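@channel sequence for tomorrow's demo:
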Amino acid sequence: QTVTVEVLDHLEHLALVDFRDAEGVERLQKAIRFADQLREVNTDGVEPMDSVLEDRCLYLREDDVTEGNCTNELLKNAREKVEEYFVAPPGNIPLPKLEERDTFLQGS
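structure tokens (generated this afternoon):
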């Protein structure tokens, strides 16, 4: 299965991963071929699992703060915040224009 420029553009924006060179595109195509093999597995009658540890009891613990309580002090370090959350910066890779990517996709 080939990777189109549009799919590549969409994946780069979702994952913030640079597939700008032929090696990156080939790695992506190998991952797609591997994932396509999973479609061949017959899953008829197999119920979805909630957890890979379904045969064990999973206990939740209380999330009690025992020390610290320094939210305001920590948030002073944030460049940008929304309510009481750090805002992660956008991806730090410059994504090429669609027409720039078309050239190396043709060679793969």
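heads up for whoever presents: Helices lie at 5-15, 22-37, 71-75, 98-106.
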